[in-house]
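At this stage, I wrote out one protein, both as residues and as discrete backbone shape codes, and that material follows here.
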Amino acid sequence: MAKGTKGGGLTTSVSKAIKSSKPTGEFNLEAFKAGKNLSSTNVKFKEDTWIPLSPAFQEVLQLPGILKGHVNMFRGHSDTGKTTAMLEAAVSCQKAGILPVLIITEMKWSWAHARQMGFEFKEVADETTGEVTGHEGFFIYVDRESLSSIEAVGAFITDLMDEQGKGNIPHELCFLWDSVGSIPCEKSINSKGGNAQWNAASLSEVFGNYVNQRITLSRKESQKYTNTLVIVNKVWVRIAEGYGERPKLENKGGNAMFSDATLVFTFGGISHAGTNKIVATKNGKTVEFAKRVRASCDKNHHNGITSNGKVLATVHGFIMDDKADGGKDMKAYSAAHRSEWLSALGSDDFDVVEEADSNDGDSNNYSEN
């Protein structure tokens, strides 16, 4: 007959804890939980806090910005303000001492635009030629040159959180990925082709089953740092499947990221971008300085508030679409930046023209998810 090991292990220690806590023979649940490391401290979460976005974003969507310690999604068609929202978040992170980690796999990044938005960095120049060779500052930047697959992005995020856990990164992290749906999985790459189902499965496996859970785990009081994930998600349109039905907005890469996101913000229309340009014009020359875009919070698992409205997206961030009140904010914006448009227009005396609304009845009242 096999002999028991001396000391008895975890089961024995738990049994002793239970026995010592019940002199009258009654079961003591709290002692049992303490013995199993399931005490009250195990269930404590940090209070939810926000990474604020612009006042215009807050006014239209009735939310302060994005939630720390959660997965946050910006989705919509091309050129609808998703990256503007992401950059507002990055700028806000820098101001709050949260290290922004820029993961740029769509390769539309512009350092000039980032600077216009208020993102802080300095250029590194060659001492001999004066040529700019890089950029440095309070951020981490990586792109498709080194992260060419969904698995690589997941491994990169995991590695940084591991380094943080070792004490090598003494900052909270905010990962900003632009964009989901822009790179394939390893299996698609190795097949020399591509398969949307493989990509969706990879996102579900790598992010849905692991990375996203590590992000939200950082909300626990037991975790020193609170980390955040902000994703820009590309979309596609599912055509109407029957009479009287409407087309539906779908997320590229499947719904794993949508399912895990606490907040989902949608910019633009369903079947197309649904924006209209606002331009300064003089003698046939034009400068586009804003786009009117619909914005909505389509999923809110924080407090349930879902709001929508229109906002103006500019190269400097969002401003209020106060057309009904005479366009006060738009006039102030054009007055503040009119000198920047002088070289293109040849004059700072110009007309502001708004394109006809191209929404064609689209609404951000999504019901497909």
Notes: The domain at 50-270 is CATH 3.40.50.300 (Rossmann fold).
